Automatic annotation (TrEMBL):
GO biological process: proteolysis
Top-level lineage group: Eukaryota
Name this protein carries in UniProt: Peptidase A1 domain-containing protein
Homology family: Belongs to the peptidase A1 family.
Molecular function via GO: aspartic-type endopeptidase activity
SUPFAM superfamilies: Acid proteases
Gene3D superfamilies: Acid Proteases
All residue ranges annotated as the Peptidase A1 domain in the record: 48-390
Organism: Trapa natans (Water chestnut)
Signal peptide limits: none
A Pfam family recorded for this sequence: TAXi_N
PANTHER family on file: ASPARTYL PROTEASE-RELATED, BASIC 7S GLOBULIN-LIKE
InterPro entries, per database record: Aspartic_peptidase_A1 (IPR001461), PEPTIDASE_A1 (IPR033121), Peptidase_aspartic_dom_sf (IPR021109), TAXi_C (IPR032799), TAXi_N (IPR032861)
Length: 413
């Protein structure tokens, strides 16, 4: 029997794409176990990017905002279905009256520039890119905010908005939990200096081979999210009990202080009083390790810098420098930072502590920036109001780029 060109094309499509479609299971074939999003890092802005397809066909690059309340974009298809004011979706989004009461508006924020704008809330079909070469079918109707293009200021060139992952009904995790198998209200985040992955709505799907010796998600420590008034902003904030440098505890009054996790702040920032005590303790510990401090200000971005030649290197965690511990819920719940996450190599001669003074008005005592979050597997459990985090994967000769969608490790979805 002769086959037409169109029939051959159809058969070719199924041969190539059926494994992906079966693996991720489109909406009309049943709920998927989890959704996977590739994450890349822009070298110039240090922003983390992911991509979706609006309407199943329009590629949309978005800046990842861990604490963002919703997905907003400057791309507004003319046929988009707008969400009415006073509707259930509008109320859950804390919407405002637009167009004389016919359209729901929400406040979109560019958390990089701090600018805000009232945006129209709409509902549209979205497909998620699973590799550079293919995408899964459009599987879900998501709420999207359409913001003016002026809100894109200071975002990576080519980005058309921000992907909010915060603690809010209209943020991506809560929306996807309804589509995932079992309504799982969790997501995992693994960042690196090159690429990584977000897994939303299910278990961590990667089973790591040696030398990690098992599933890295089983090796995490958990801390409860802060229950302060900041919870209403959608942020991921942890109670901060103490700070230690090389096991020496800083003398600080940390009552009601918090540690905020952020993907839009490139490097850790601290309230001025904490920063002064911390950098003093770090400089003292560094001197005891024979690290040569460079006087003056060799970097425009960092204050505490050292001669690169005076810093020993290790194959696992990079620079051998004083360890930093953030004591969270209890003495055994610690977020430890090693050299690769604490230091920034400015040039061949200069390596600096990647921490900045956030000023006396900074709301959180410490903001953990993207550089400090890299190569740490994090789990955000919205149902239990908990955050889990692993030790640095570099200690196990792994990195978050091992779990990128183009890596050789296979997801067990």
């Amino acid at each position: 029997m002769a086959f037409s060109a169109s029939m051959i094309s159809v058969f070719s499509f199924f041969i190539v794409f059926w494994p992906l479609i079966h693996q991720f299971r489109a909406h009309n074939l049943g709920s998927p176990k989890a959704f996977l999003f590739p994450v890349t890092k822009d070298a110039s802005t240090l922003q983390y990017l992911t991509q979706i397809r609006l309407g199943g066909s329009i590629p949309l690059t978005l800046v990842l905002d861990l604490n963002g309340r919703h997905l907003w974009t400057s791309l507004a298809p003319s046929t988009r279905p707008l969400v009415p004011f006073r509707s259930f979706h509008c109320i859950s989004a804390d919407g405002k009256n637009m167009r004389g009461g016919t359209v729901c508006g929400v406040v979109s924020e560019n958390s990089v520039s701090g600018a805000t704008a009232v945006s129209e809330l709409s509902e549209g079909a979205v497909a998620f890119v699973s590799s550079q070469r293919s995408s899964i079918p459009a599987i879900h109707q998501l709420l999207l905010a359409h913001a003016p293009s002026s809100l894109l200021s200071r975002l990576t060139i080519g980005a058309r908005g921000m992907l909010g992952m915060g603690r809010a009904p209209t943020a991506l995790p809560e929306q996807l939990s309804a589509a995932a198998s079992g309504g799982d209200r969790r997501f995992f985040l693994c960042l690196s200096e090159s690429d990584g992955v977000i897994v939303a709505g299910g278990d961590w799907p990667y089973s790591s081979s040696p030398p990690l010796r098992g599933d890295v998600s089983k090796l995490m420590v958990y801390a409860p999210l802060s229950t302060s008034e900041r919870e209403t902003t959608g942020e991921y904030s942890l109670n901060l009990k103490a700070i230690e440098v090389n096991r020496e505890r800083l003398t600080l009054n940390l009552n009601s202080s918090s540690l905020l996790l952020s993907t839009v702040v490139p490097f850790m920032t601290m309230q001025s009083a904490i920063y002064t005590a911390f950098t003093g303790a770090f400089a003292k510990a560094a001197a005891a390790m024979n690290m040569t401090r460079i006087q003056g200000r060799p970097s425009d971005h960092f204050e505490l810098c050292f001669s690169s030649d005076s810093i020993s290197k290790t194959p696992k965690v990079g620079s051998l420098v004083p360890e930093i511990d953030f004591v969270l819920q209890s003495e055994i719940v610690r977020w430890r930072i090693h050299g690769r996450n604490s230091m920034v190599r400015v040039n061949d001669e200069v390596t600096c502590l990647g921490v900045r003074d956030g000023g006396s008005e900074q709301r959180s005592g410490v903001v953990m920036g993207g550089h400090q979050l890299e190569n740490v597997l994090m789990e955000f459990d919205l149902g239990a109001s908990m955050v889990g985090f692993s030790r640095s994967l570099l200690l196990s000769q792994r990195s978050c780029s091992d779990f990128s969608l183009s890596s050789s490790l296979t997801a067990s979805l």
